[in-house]
Design a protein that fits this description.
Blueprint lengths: L10 H11 L9 E10 L2 E8 L2 E5 L1 H4 L4 E6 L3 E5 L2 E2 L2 E8 L2 E8 L4 H15 L28 E3 L4 H9 L9 E4 L4 E5 L3 E7 L1 H4 L3 E7 L3 E7 L4 E8 L11 E5 L3 H16 L27 H13 L5 H16 L1
Length: about 325
């Protein structure tokens, strides 16, 4: 993937952004350009202009695959860079309203305008796909029409959530499943990816996060019954931060029956791609033989030394177990 950046964006920074955004791109989507922007609520650090849309993101959120703003080319009516307090803002007007991506450096305004104009020109002749029309909403319990692949369970979808789903849909595409939890968010399943939009107000002051999980990155999808609400949790191969709740959707218990039926189908589709993606696979390290500490210092002392090495990260779990067995065996003779 090739892209261009203004002079003030370092090559390493752009490469980090590109690697983090790669799992979130639609099939066939390519990044054309990066630029820095500044916005504090919500915090936005950069924009990416692709061959399909304009994305606003922040580097902290990239660890959880969080895109702050997204404006699809087919939805953009116009854009402008008005002056605000001495700096230029990038404001994109879509059919759903204005999107303020944040302040752009004065010396980079021309760069940003050039690539957004190029995006609009390149997509001007592309007919608007069916996915850009308002999504049909099915009442809970109503069977879906036979000519619709969309299945909705839960509360009716409001305009904000409709926009999120449309922005994350590819050409002539709609999710085959939506589990909508009202104010708590929703889960939308496409053929190759999962969109989770969830309200984590209880932990982060009213933040709505929207995260895209490609099927190849998903390790498992858990269903967790609760006292008040049930929870659907998406666990990925690369997930490390258990404090991050952007992968969880709280769901009223009344949705349980329909959700469980479709969750089984969702798991089946994900299991067809079971295994970590190639980009996350690393060749195994050559085996190391960890010698046990010399005898004579006492079993407890030697085990403590091994525990210290393990705590410091100098030996891994398998090496620690191997050395511990060797120490115990030596003292058993």
């Amino acid at each position: 993937m090739s892209y261009v950046c203004p002079p003030r964006v370092k090559v390493k920074t752009a490469a980090r952004w590109a690697n983090a955004l790669a799992p979130l791109l639609y099939p066939g989507e390519q990044i054309w350009a990066f630029a820095r922007v500044t916005r504090f609520k919500p915090t936005t650090e950069g924009i990416a202009i692709t061959n399909q849309r304009v994305l606003g993101f922040m580097s902290i959120a990239l660890a959880t695959k969080h895109i702050v703003f997204s404006a699809s080319a087919r939805e953009i009516i116009k854009f402008d860079t008005p002056i605000n307090l001495g700096s230029r803002k990038l404001v994109v007007t879509t059919r759903y309203g204005d999107v303020d991506f944040g302040s752009v450096r004065n010396d980079e305004v021309g760069f940003v305008r050039h690539y957004i104009e190029y995006l609009l020109e390149a997509t001007a002749e592309v007919p608007s796909p069916a996915a850009s029309a308002p999504l049909p909403v099915l009442n809970t319990g109503e069977p879906a029409p036979t000519n619709l692949s969309l299945r909705l369970h839960g509360a009716p979808i409001d305009d904000r959530d409709k926009k999120l789903i449309v922005d994350h849909s590819g050409p002539v595409e709609e999710p085959w499943l939506i589990i909508h939890s009202g104010g708590s968010g929703f889960l939308a399943a496409f053929e190759d990816r999962l969109l989770v939009s969830t309200d984590i107000a209880s932990t982060q002051g009213g933040v709505r996060t929207t995260t895209v999980f490609s099927f190849v990155s998903i390790k498992t999808i858990e269903y967790i019954p609760g006292d008040v609400n049930d929870v659907i949790a998406v666990l990925t191969w690369g997930r490390r931060d258990d404090a991050d709740l952007s992968n969880r959707l709280e769901m009223p218990k009344k949705l349980r029956d329909g959700a469980l039926q479709n969750l089984h189908e969702l798991r089946r589709r994900v299991s067809n791609l079971d295994g970590p993606p190639v980009s996350m696979w690393k060749p195994p390290l050559p085996p190391r033989v960890v010698a046990a500490p010399p005898p004579g210092s006492g079993l407890v002392t030697e085990l403590q030394k091994l525990a210290d090495l393990h705590a410091q990260g100098l030996i891994d779990d398998d090496e620690f177990k191997e050395a511990k067995r060797a120490v115990i065996a030596a003292h058993a003779k």
